[in-house]
Amino acid sequence: MGWSSLLELGRPMLASYHKSALQPKKQQICYLTNLLRENARSQFGRDHSFSDIMTLDAFQANVPISAYQDLKPYIDQIIAGDHTALTSDPTIMFELTGGSSGGQKHIPFNTRLLSDFQRSILPWFSDFLTHYPKIMSGRAYFAISPVMQTQSDVGGLPVGLPSDAAYFGAEAASHIADVSVYSPSLSDPERWSIATAAWLAATHDLTLISVWSPTFLTGILDTITQNPDQVAKAIHDGDFGIPVNPEQAKLVEHGPSHLWPDLTIVSTWADASSAPFFSDLQSRLPDIYLQPKGLLATEGVFTFPLCDAANPVPALHSAFLEFEDEHRKIFTVDALSKGETYDLIVTNTGGFYRYRIGDRVQCTGYYNGSDLPMLKFMGRSGQTVDLVGEKLTEDFVLSCMHDLGFPCILIPRYDHPCRYDIGIDANVTPRPDIAEQIDECLKTNPQYAYARAIGQLARPQVIQYTDLLDRYIAFRLTQGHRLSDIKVPVLLKPGVDSYDIWGKGKELQTC
């Protein structure tokens, strides 16, 4: 059972995917046609004449590209009790994710959307198990969803699934449980960090690690290397429910290659803001295949990796995908140009129709000479910062800074752990609790709260700079911007706008 059952569950889905990959547009049109037919009786379907749509052009004419706020009236109807406002298949639960101006968005889920998750996740499993059968000789550690839920229900519907394994479906979830390392629950973050590191260090037959951000795993590795005595003691004494294993405890000081001699694959984010952390992880695990993850968001699966593909491929069976270039021209999956970057627009069975997901992808080529593009994640659209999965937007940060009474800028820091500095002018005398106040407001974004709780992000620090705003404007002028076009942001992006480049060494004090 276990691995072999997961391989067999995903095998027909993988074969179906490879068949669809030969004619990706045909598969996508079929997916869209079925979706429109199935949801014609929903409120959204009636409002947008789904029953009259017979072509892709008609779909694009009848349904405008949307943002969350455009769909929110329908989501409010679901919360009020109309569970078929967006889809004919009733909404059964919500997931929470970070919002732009508020702390969070409510993402509706139904059984069809969960099935679409599985139609990409299980083929991914089958693919890597086929290419690396050694994985089936050991166990895996999975950390799938980075959100720590703070609500139990919304409008009478549950928030979140019972466990991460539920994304795989009931049958697969039992097999996942058979091969998974125990994952301690998050209550006391410090205790969780040691417990998780100890459980993994105690797992001599670990063959697969799947996490979202590379910083999640480097944090665990740091816990092992920085607290070897505590980790070894936990394994030796059987703390946290770990089976007593004195021999394994002796290996803690020798590092990952001795702890996990059969570790074969680490699956994690690799691109955009995660790229430097992915490289760091590669240097720590030089003999392990690090597989870049595809685009798996709260709203759905949009790309997934194949072992023989240089970059992830579109999730043809899990969403209808449109691609918008810099000239606002829309393309289907088979019509992308190598080297071009596109904003991703998705339609899913959970009720998000032509939804601008906020991710940008680049076509890096075509898979095995077919019409199936390979897609590299290039980052978030607009002013969004995502060091470790927190997805902070400028609108949201602005709402947290609104009542301070003086200008300040949130500055991302690639540190260990990452953090945000709160830059203020040297002439301002800040209240002593300003960092705590802003931190608490930022925690209303559930991804940020989770990253803070498990130590991926350190607490923000207040740092004062001489002539803060004037220096920012002067920097932008040196980059060729006109004075009339310069708007001082409240959230800097990593890279050219970072104080690491244009403001380093000018700090006066840290509060």
TrEMBL record:
Domain GH3 middle: 319-380
Residues spanning the membrane: none
Pfam families from the UniProt entry: GH3 (PF03321), GH3_M (PF23571)
Protein name from the UniProt record: GH3 auxin-responsive promoter family protein
